[in-house]
Predict the structure.
Amino acid sequence: MINETLPKEEISKTKRQMIFKKVYGTLLGVAYGDAMGMPTSLMNPIMIRKMFPERITQLLPAPIGHVIHNGMKAGQITDDTQQTLLLVDLFLEEKKFTKEGVAKKLLKWAKSLNAFETLILGPSSLRALKMIDSGVSIDEAGWMGDTNGAAMKISPAGIVNPGDYDAVVKDVAEICIPTHNTNIAIAGASAVACAVSAGMVSENLETIIDAFMYGAEEGMKLGNQWYGASIIKRAEHALGIIRSGKSEEEIWQDLYDYIGAGVAMSESVPLALALVVYYDGDPLKTIEAAANLGGDCDTIGAIAGSIAGAFSGSDVFPNEIIERLSKVNNIDLKNYAERLTEILVSK
């Protein structure tokens, strides 16, 4: 907390530093969660235990022959972080999120990576971006998009609206229109972004949970009405599992079996929240669990990492992790955080 008895200049400096650490922590959480989960992504728990009997506790390369990440280096990020930074770029350029801007950024990025001919994109994004490229309206392209691709990249909407959940949901809905314009996708993405927004201003995990639930509830009112299990009910069940008193490995297995760890919004998003709460908002422990639990590990790591990173800030991330992410991927997350901070402190 800021000591209000300090001189005004010191208060301003302290506030800027606090905001920067929260923003930086969020971006680091996305990238580290993504890169940690990359080697085990799309594996089930049995496969992970067989290939990594001592658990994954550090950044590793993808196993030879990995179904989607073959050849990727230790610390390399995937589309989860890349799309997150596309949204940051858009906000830095336009100071707002627009469906046209999102569609333009995503389409240009996808074509630059030949994503239409590979397995880089998730199912909803691939389908929608192909439709947009063929001339379908942005407002129509995402009408069936219901997977977790909306949640993996959504943290910037929480970063730029600290503590303002209604503004968060409004931005999330705009971001989701091109590729994930369904109520279930907007609900999941809003839950995550509101949790990030809460983490930007709160040191209380109950506030994070309340913000998550609020985002899920409000998001369900928006977009094309689609089918899917309740994110709120699944999240409540997931929180019950982590409070069961069972061992860590038993809890992991119960979360995998009863909540699920796939690409569905109502699986990966409630699971991510449960991991954040179980590990008391510690991004390192949260991300390590996501990498070892099974399923869509990189995306769950990125989602959970964004929430825990906002909650705990950047100081908890070791320098060697930060340096590896920067070097392997040629990205400067600190610079992104500094530029976002400048906008936030000038509001």
About this structure: The chain has one domain: 14-345. Confidence is low (pLDDT under 50) at residues 1-7. The longest helix spans residues 8-37. The CA atoms of residues 23 and 337 lie 6 Å apart.
